[in-house]
Amino acid sequence: MPQKYLPIITIVTMGFMIASCSGTPPTSFGTQPDGKLAPCPDTPNCVSSFASPEDETHYIPPIQADEKKWNKLPRILTDTPRIKVTNQSEYYLKAEATTRILRFVDDLEFLYHPNQALIHIRSASRIGRSDLGVNRKRIERIREQLQKNK
User: Fold this and answer.
1) How high is the pLDDT of residue 91?
2) CATH hierarchy code of domain 38-147
3) Of 26, 66, 74, 83, which sees the most CB atoms within 10 A?
4) Which contiguous run of DSSP H or E holds residue 11?
5) This model's pTM is above 0.85
């Protein structure tokens, strides 16, 4: 093969590799039959407020929130670079966060319980084993933004 095609082949191959990083969305989104969000897989690339508090890898506390904060959440998400809201109903919101360079996609789910004044959370990477704490850090930034008095 002539050397002049090597850069084109390299670019095309890299394009396919980057495009494949988004992964396939799981089919278990939304409120499960038990009224919770889907449990995290065994891999350390997911956090959930429905995980056991003893599970330090996966557990993250729910967000204390009234209706005003729940209604503020979609705006916070859409104002955050590389996050898009993909599904929203009265008490449920799903969003996708895409990493800047490799274009990995993480799925974020929020389930509002108005009678408890809580937003339950699940944030998980679609592919890979570790997320280097990215899902936890993202949720904590969202929590901080919701707690601001704006």
Assistant:
1) 97
2) 3.30.310
3) 83
4) helix 6-19
5) no
Structure tokens at 90: 């009265």
Q: What is the Cα–Cα distance from 79 to 143, expressed in whole angstroms?
A: 14
**97-134 in b/e burial notation, b at 16+ Cβ within 10 A?**
beeeeeebbbbbbbbbeeeeebbbbbbbbbeeeebeeb
19: pLDDT strictly greater than 50: no
d(CA 112, CA 91) in angstroms, rounded, equals 5
Contact in structure between 38 and 49 (CB atoms under 8 Å): no
pLDDT at site 21: 44
- Burial bucket for residue 79 (CB in 10 Å: 0-12, 13-18, 19+): exposed
Distances (CA, A) of 17 to 5, 7, 11, 14, 20: 18, 15, 10, 5, 5
94, 107 contact by CB (below 8 A): yes
Q: What is the mean pLDDT of residues 125-129?
A: 87
CA distance 86 to 45: 21
Q: Are residues 73 and 80 in contact, defined by beta-carbon separation less than 8 angstroms?
A: no
- Residue pair 111/91 in contact (Cβ under 8 Å)? The answer is yes
Q: Indicate the domain borders of the chain.
A: 38-147
